[in-house]
Each structure stands twice: as C-alpha cells, then as structure tokens.
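Structure request: GhrB protein, Symbiodinium pilosum.
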Amino acid sequence: MSWLYHVLACGLVVSVGAKPVVLVYEMSAAYLSDLANSAASAKVEFRACETHCAISTDRKDVIAAVGMPRNFTSLYDLPNLKLIQSTTYMYPRLSSVPARPIVAKYDAPWRIYGVEPIAEFVVAAAFQWTYKLAEVSSRFRACAFGSGAPGGCAPDSALTAHPTLMSKTMGILGYGTIGEAVGRRAFALGMRVLATRRHGPFSSWLIDDNDKLLAESDFVAVTVPGSVFHVINRTALALMKPGAVLIPISSNPVDFDALYQALLTRRIGAVLDVWPQGCWHYPDSFCGPPYGPEAQPYLQPRLAELDNVLVLPGLAMRDSRFWSNSAVWVSDNLVALMDGMPLKGVVRNASVDLEQTEMQFV
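Returned structure:
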C-alpha cells in the first residue's frame, strides 16, 4: 500500500496493482544486477533494453528511462515519462529529448574519478604507446608457435627492441590538480617532466613557455580546463616534436580538424579518449535518429583507420567502481522520484510540477 501512496503523491500514471516500469538502456549485466539489488527494486520494475526497447506492457506504466538510448525519439512514445536519468556525467542533448521529464546525470565524485584515475590513464596511454605489448605478442605468436619455429622469427634484437619511458619527456599543458597528479606519476617513473601554467612560482620543470613544452615533449598531456577552447591548434601541433603523442583529457581544448590534418601526415600521434560530438560528447551527447553522422564522435571516417592514433570510448574516468556507484546513485534518484523528494544531479527540471500532474488510473 505504501508504494501506491507514493505513486499517487507524485501523480504517476500506472496500472492499479502494478509497479511503475523503468527502462534501462544499454547497460551491462553487472549494472543491471546492481539495480536489481538496490533499494529502488522494491518500488519499480526494471526492464532491460538494447538500442530499442520493445515494450510489451502499457506504455503509460513507464515512468523513467535510465542509461543512453541510441534513438532518443523512442522516448517521445512514453506519455508518462517523469525522469531521464543518465548513468554517467554525460547526458542527452536537451533539445533531443521530451521537454516534460526531469533530466538528471550521475554527478560522480570529482576527486575520485576526475584526478587520480585520469592521471593513471595518461601514464597507461604512454606505456601502451611505448611498449605496444599486444602488437609484439601478436608477432611473437605468429612466428614462435607455428611449425618450424623459431625459423620464422625476426632476430631477438629486432623482436624485443623497444624504448622506455625513462628516456622520454612528459609534457603537461595546464598544471592544475590533474596535471600535478600526472607529473607525480611521470617523475616517479624516471621521466623528464615539463609542465606549464599561467602563474608561478616556477621551477626547473614548471615553466610558462608552452612552445618549449611542445617542442621538447615526447608525450603532451593536455590537462587545461574543458572551458578552454583550441589551445591545441594548427600552430601548436606544428610546434610538437616529430613522433610526439598528444593525450588530451577534454575535447574542447583541441581543434580536432587541425589535429586530423596533422595525424594524416604521420608526423605525430594521439591517444583520443574524448570527442567533440556524437554519442560520446561531454557533457551533452546526441546520437541522432536513426544513427546519422552526428552519432559519430568525429566526422572524419579515416581517423579510426590511422595507425598513429589510438581511439577510445571515454574510459579514463569510468572504472568498475564508477559503475557500481552509479547504480547506487540511480537507485537513490528513483526512490526519490517515487517518494516525491528532490533528485540529485538534475540538469533540467520538469516543465510541469510533478505534484500538480493530473492523476489517472487505467
């Protein structure tokens, strides 16, 4: 009886005797399990969806959509949708979803997921670029585990030769909290560190000369705030050391068109975990019905084919703990929705006050 009272208090439209339905889009089995074991499971029924959700029940029972449906237009078919809940710090472009529901995101703790994990990712990217373990393993498997091995293998001096990070320079463009975390790790590995920021005090490796950093660094970690636009432009890319690798942690500071042209020349490389548009754009993402060009993270089809760029889906801030904590956050918001309490991480409030919504029964 208590859950029905909360439904009535919120003015939700559901079938009598049934739990309200929450559609969960494109989440892993582990995430769905976390939701099923959460406090919200006593108040709502979760339905797992792929890119499109076939709703066998009355669409009026659906009160929330969780995750990222690739086709946002499907949300317009849900007349009593009250909440569109993102499971990450990104959320759907507001102009692409119905105006009436609340839109909320998961406000992940910045210190936990925005500093140390990103710094670890930058170092992991540098290691991957330098050692190329998967590629070396593939060559070794092909020559050393076949018939007539090791006759098909290159000499050990060729097969095992590689540089080390100890011989490299890590450049950190924008020495803030994340930049400092990158610097600590790089220095501990024996790398030479160059970092820039606007204001001193400066030291032997903390300078105010971006040109020097670009010219001398083997890896350039771009850790300036996301509010800074195109600090990495055609001029900056031309200043980079041949063979250097760009590792940005936000898309806005990078002129992607200029970067694409620089990558085509094979003069530099890049590890790209952030994107300027599409379903992977921060903070508002848009897949476009039905998955048109705007669904792509960058509208240059040859980018992913280049062997001097490593393309990634935004994993720097999203480890297993991120997702388990996200499920708790989403559950809390669903409980708050049912109980008529304020929600967390609200990006846009509902256009109509939920408490004033006309109640109907079917």
